[in-house]
Structure to design on (511 residues):
């Protein structure tokens, strides 16, 4: 999968997506929106519209063909093989050849575009297959088993919906311009066309959202991966742009379309709709560019996330302490009652009651949130890259003796010779160590705590040794909680205990 990492393919991939999306969008638009709209108005499809759409089809087809070759060459360079070998011997190559075949087939349909509706039964599915086949060239094509099948299905639906909707935007703009400003028969076909397109859009948008959710789950997996890796950030940017497109689409559908019926407004409203549609199409291109970059990045699931916030959510402390648990449940319920009071007061127009409701909601609600918020570090969700072994633990112990006893004491109780001089009580490393994640412990040792009260060891202890230190701290905290006394200097004496010693961290290490 090394070629996912090379970056020179981004533009080619994105252009290939854009071109095939445009092709499938044009055919779907003509046969599902434009033809029926003009039939309703008892008019033929305007030749100027068909001419423009044919031109757009040829341009998209040429770009699709060109980028297919460039993409194949790029991949074979990245793999270090001949283009012919890549095309004939890899799944990527087979899919590529199939898609080029489809592109050539589509070319036979451009001349007759929009002539007979029966042609649509062949060319609309064909252009759909052209875009759907790209799913086998992405991450989903590499998965296996049931999960792989679901991921692949989600990817195919995502591509199809994107093709029909995003690819239909430019044709829609051309359609509106011809209908409202050109020789295209005026308001009636425009109105039918726009309402048909928004129905289609609604189906596509729901599909995009659902399949996107499934894809996100497969590729990004967790909240830390979503907010803490470049892959996740791009995904969020894509989502934000998608929402902006929805905004413009909604503006067209709910604000402008109803006004198009008022004849006096038609030209003005039509211009607004065309402008919004073009903005949508431009934002759509931006989304496609992001998709091009995403395909070349390592998905969030396979990267150590950098947690960007000062706090994180955890149920650990609430679960560990029954009184905190009742506190959390009680204040959540009180906040809920407050919400009810607030809603009732708004409904009845009672200001005083609304204020009381708001105070209940925010007061108790914030308290409940506060109970599950704990301080976080950038590495909160990092997991040790090293195996959890007796040798690592013994190495960690040696490092501990050199660097940490002076403050934390030989047994980690916070009673070393320097502890008395510390402005902040030195932590007992056997007490509540597991309240912190492994990644947090790593951050403490790497960056120090409280502006140097505990010093940073980034410069003096290597990265791997720091993780060994953490392995030792976890092992010792676990041993001391289960009352085990072990000789940390002699790895062979506790080697058989390692698997039960720190079940939590050992489990983290194994996945
Ligand atoms: C100069 C004294 C000093 C030295 C040396 C020192 N620490 Fe600390 N350490 C502290 C103090 C003080 C705290 C408590 C900070 C706080 O509570 O804000 C602390 C806290 C910690 C904590 C957080 C524990 C918790 O449960 O909150 C860890 C983990 C830790 N130290 C590990 C180490 C390790 C590993 C070393 C050796 C590489 C080390 N420390 C060396 C002073 C020191």
């Amino acid at each position: 999968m090394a070629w996912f990492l090379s970056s020179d393919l981004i533009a080619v991939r994105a252009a290939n997506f854009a071109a095939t999306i445009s092709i499938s969008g044009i055919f779907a638009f003509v046969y599902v929106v434009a033809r029926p709209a003009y039939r309703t108005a008892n008019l033929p499809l305007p030749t100027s519209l068909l001419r423009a759409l044919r031109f757009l089809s040829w341009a998209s087809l040429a770009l699709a063909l060109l980028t297919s070759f460039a993409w194949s060459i790029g991949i074979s360079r990245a793999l270090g093989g001949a283009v012919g070998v890549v095309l004939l011997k890899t799944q990527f190559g087979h899919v590529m050849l199939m898609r080029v075949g489809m592109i050539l087939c589509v070319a036979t349909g451009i001349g007759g575009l929009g002539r007979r509706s029966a042609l649509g039964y062949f060319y609309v599915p064909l252009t759909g297959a052209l875009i759907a086949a790209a799913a086998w060239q992405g991450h989903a094509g590499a998965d296996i088993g049931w999960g792989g099948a679901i991921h692949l299905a989600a990817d195919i639906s995502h591509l199809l919906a994107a093709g029909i909707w995003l690819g239909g935007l430019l044709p829609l703009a051309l359609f509106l311009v011809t209908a409202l400003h050109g020789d295209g028969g005026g308001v009636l076909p425009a109105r039918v066309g726009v309402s048909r397109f928004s129905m289609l859009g609604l189906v596509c948008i729901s599909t995009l959202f659902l399949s996107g959710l499934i894809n996100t789950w497969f590729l990004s997996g967790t909240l830390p991966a979503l907010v803490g890796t470049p892959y996740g950030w791009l995904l969020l940017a894509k989502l934000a742009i998608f929402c902006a497109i929805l905004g413009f689409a909604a503006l067209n559908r709910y604000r402008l379309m109803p006004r198009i019926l008022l004849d006096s407004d038609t030209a003005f409203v039509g211009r607004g709709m065309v402008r919004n549609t073009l903005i949508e199409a431009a934002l759509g291109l931006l989304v496609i560019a992001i998709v091009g970059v995403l395909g070349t990045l390592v998905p969030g699931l396979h990267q150590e996330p950098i947690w960007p916030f000062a706090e994180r959510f955890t149920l650990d402390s609430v679960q560990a302490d029954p009184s905190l648990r009742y506190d959390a449940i009680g204040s959540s319920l009180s906040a809920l009652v407050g919400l009810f009071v607030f809603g009732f007061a708004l409904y009845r127009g009672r200001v005083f009651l609304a204020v009381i409701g708001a105070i209940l909601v925010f007061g108790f609600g914030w308290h409940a949130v506060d109970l599950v918020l704990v301080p976080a570090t950038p590495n909160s969700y990092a997991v040790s890259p090293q195996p959890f072994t007796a040798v690592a633990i013994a190495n960690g112990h040696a490092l501990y003796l050199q660097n940490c006893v002076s403050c934390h004491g030989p047994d980690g109780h916070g009673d070393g010779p320097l502890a008395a001089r510390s402005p902040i009580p030195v932590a007992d490393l056997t007490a509540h160590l597991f309240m912190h994640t492994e990644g947090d412990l790593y951050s403490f040792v790497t960056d120090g705590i409280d502006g140097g009260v505990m010093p940073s060891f980034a410069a003096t202890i290597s990265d791997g040794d720091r993780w060994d230190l953490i392995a030792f701290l976890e092992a010792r905290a676990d041993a001391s909680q289960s009352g085990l006394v072990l000789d940390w200097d002699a790895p062979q004496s506790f080697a058989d205990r390692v698997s039960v010693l720190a079940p939590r961290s050992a489990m983290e290490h194994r996945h």
Residues 1-5, 506-511 have pLDDT under 50 and may be disordered. The two ends are 21 Å apart (CA to CA). The pocket of heme C is lined by residues 403-404, 406-408, 418, 422, 424, 426-427, 429, 432-433, 436, 441, 444-445, 449-450, 453-455, 457, 469, 473 (CB under 6 Å).
